[in-house]
TrEMBL record:
Keywords: NADP, Oxidoreductase. One of its GO terms (molecular function) is oxidoreductase activity, acting on NAD(P)H. This is Enoyl reductase (ER) domain-containing protein. It comes from the Bacteria. Gene3D superfamilies: Medium-chain alcohol dehydrogenases, catalytic domain, NAD(P)-binding Rossmann-like Domain. Pfam families: ADH_N, ADH_zinc_N.
Length: 345
């Protein structure tokens, strides 16, 4: 009997170069430029992914503009979320095979390993199987939004039946995911959006109520809608609006700020918090991503819900190709989108 020796890396195709998106200085979408580099073979423990779709995040724009928690090292790559197909595997890869559709979790270093490229070599621990039954555009944004809300909505049980959940930036992918999961869990949702332009679309997306922050008194409307005040706020905006929200909360409510979409300072309204008895905290999804036991529990929780259609990610309707990446970022940063802006390859 002759034994066959497996030669790594195992590959399905043999591309030699990949396009990628990079920037050499901080700034707006216009600083992004395309480059071409040679494709490296996947190292031991790595998987090469041929990208199908890239999901753009507000954190990518903050990173590119120099206002995020992580600094860029120039020339810097960009991109932290997407979906693709396994194209090659290195030695010691045990969980994936060529041809599988996979999601890419945020890299440890966006500057050196950002995913805005045709091909990416990714450590196998940064991959998850893509949910069944979703298009590439929706699958591209399936995991990060729902993983972001897992700790507070599932582990802590803050979206329990009958509770009122306040979701600022209601058209964002995370707020839309929170809206979907809240309804699955029996909670009720209030979306906050800046202008009336998206109100009808947000109501169609299933929010139980929508508040227009430019036109309405947020505190008064929250009390009017809920009767006693809202129970939980999951806030990616921050800024001066936070104090207006606190005025409409139930005694002892909880607030979590997980973003700073408002460029203004976020004051800590001590007296408003003391009056309401509300508690406030901050959160980043990375604390879940590095806890493999909890991450696996989250995946096992969500996969059947995705497959059955009980929850669903939302992708913006506007279509962009890789060559239109600058336009895609401009669209996201115009605040006219509903759901995640996707770049297709």
């Amino acid at each position: 009997m002759t034994l066959m020796t497996i030669q790594y890396p195992l590959v399905s195709t043999a591309p030699t170069t990949t396009r990628l998106l990079e920037f050499t200085e901080y700034g707006g979408p216009e600083v992004l430029d395309k480059a071409t580099i040679d494709i490296a073979e996947p190292a031991a423990g790595e998987v090469r992914v041929r990208m199908k779709a890239l999901a753009l995040n507000r954190s990518n724009a903050l990173f590119r503009s120099g206002t995020y928690v992580f600094e860029a090292r120039f020339p810097s790559r960009i991109g932290t979320e997407g979906v693709g197909e396994v194209d090659a595997i290195g030695a010691d890869v045990t969980e994936y095979v060529i041809g599988q559709r996979v999601n890419l979790l945020p890299p440890d270093n966006e500057s050196t390993h950002g995913y805005a490229a045709d091909y990416n070599n990714v450590p196998q621990e940064k991959l998850l199987l893509a949910p069944e039954g979703l298009t590439d555009r929706k699958a591209a944004t399936a995991w990060v939004p729902f993983l972001t809300i897992y700790h507070h909505f599932v582990e802590k049980g803050l979206a329990a039946p009958g509770r009122w959940i306040v979701l600022p930036a209601a058209s964002s992918s995370v707020s839309l995911a929170a809206n979907s999961l809240s309804h699955h869990l029996g909670a009720k949702t209030i979306g906050i959006t800046r202008t009336v332009a998206k109100k009808a679309a947000l109501e169609a997306a299933g929010y139980d109520a929508v508040i227009i922050s430019e036109d309405e008194d947020i505190s008064a409307r929250l009390l009017e809608i809920t009767g006693e005040g809202a129970d939980f706020v999951f806030d990616p905006v921050g800024g001066p609006q936070l104090e207006k929200i606190i005025g409409g909360l139930k005694q002892g409510a909880e607030i979590n700020v997980y973003g700073v979409l408002d460029a203004a300072e976020t004051p800590l309204p001590v007296f408003a918090l003391m009056h309401s008895g509300a508690t406030i905290g901050c959160y980043m999804v990375y604390e879940l991503l590095v806890d493999l036991t909890r991450l696996r529990a989250a995946v096992d929780y969500y996969l059947p819900l995705f497959k059955s259609g009980q929850i669903a990610p939302v992708a913006d309707d506007k279509l962009f190709t890789f060559d239109q990446s600058v336009e895609a970022f401009q669209h996201m940063e115009s605040n006219t989108q509903l759901g995640k802006v996707i770049v297709s390859f």
